[in-house]
Design brief:
This protein is mainly β. It is built from no helices and eleven strands. Strand 4 and strand 5 form a beta hairpin.
């Protein structure tokens, strides 16, 4: 079983930046693909970004390309989401996720990000 704990959410003005963190435990970190998803009020869950087990490959959702950056630190078993040029439409609960297979198996509790205009 994998446990994921997110942190770093909060309130920020449009154009600002935030960094989210997700600490993983319970399974070898290098065996996990890590990702971030978000759910805005009244909307479906949206894929944000993923990073491969080695960190060599990243995939971004179209709405965040060029503004968000994912990274992972194997020494700390942590994945980060650096968010820049934030827009009000980025307001959502952000969830960290992990998978060892093709299915996203593990989820964090979520952290709220609110971007004011």
């Amino acid at each position: 079983q994998v446990q994921l704990v997110e942190s770093g959410g909060g309130l920020v003005q449009a154009g600002g930046s935030l960094r989210l963190s997700c600490a993983a435990s319970g399974q070898t970190f290098s065996s996990l693909v890590m990702g971030w998803f978000r759910r805005a009020p009244g909307k479906e869950r949206e894929f944000v970004v993923s990073i491969s087990k080695s960190g060599s490959r990243t995939d971004y959702g179209d709405s965040v390309k060029g503004r968000f950056t994912i990274s992972r630190d194997s020494a700390k078993n942590t994945v980060y989401l650096q968010m820049s040029s934030l827009k009000p439409e980025d307001t959502a609960v952000y969830y960290c996720a992990a998978r060892g297979t093709n299915t996203w198996q593990y989820w964090g509790q979520g952290t709220q990000v609110t971007v004011s205009s």
